[in-house]
Amino acid sequence: MKAVVIGESSGASMEQIMAVYPRHKAVVDQFVARGDVIGIGPFADLGNMAIFRTREAAEAFARIDPFALEGLVKSYVIRDWNDSMLV
Fold first, then answer.
1. What is the pTM of this model?
2. Which contiguous run of DSSP H or E holds residue 37?
3. pLDDT tens digits for 18-63?
4. Which distant-in-sequence residues (6+ apart) come within 8 Å of 60 by Cβ?
5. Separation between Cα atoms, residue 28 and residue 32, nearest integer Å
6. What are phi and psi of 75, to 5 degrees?
7. What is the rounded distance in angstroms from the CA atom of residue 1 to the CA atom of residue 37?
8. 81 beta partners
9. Which stretches within 1-87 are classed as H helix?
10. String of b and e for 34-64 (b: at least 16 CB within 10 Å)?
11. pLDDT, tens digit, 9 for 90 and up, residues 7-20
12. Nearest to residue 59, comparing CAs of 12, 19, 7, 5?
C-alpha cells in the first residue's frame, strides 16, 4: 500500500516558496535516492502532493520537510492509498 501526503498552501508568495525551495529539494532528493518517492509536485493553488512507497516514508518526509517546518504548508494529511496505477 502506498501513502500520499497532501499539503494545503499557507498562502505564501512564490518568492517565499522559492526562498525555501532549495532546502525542500534537498530533502526530496534524499527520498528519491532511496526509492521512496513515486511522484511529487505542486497543485495550481500552490498546495502540494507526494506519493510514497510506504506510510513510514511519508511520515518521515512530513516530519522534516522545510515547506512544512517553515510554514509554507499550512497543514498536511497522510492517506493510505490502494492504487491501481498502470505504470
1. 0.89
2. strand 37-42
3. 999 999 999 999 999 999 999 999 999 888 999 999 999 999 999 9
4. 31
5. 6
6. -160, 160
7. 13
8. 2
9. 14-33, 55-64, 66-69
10. eebbbebeeeeebbbebbbbebebbebbbee
11. 999 999 999 999 99
12. 5
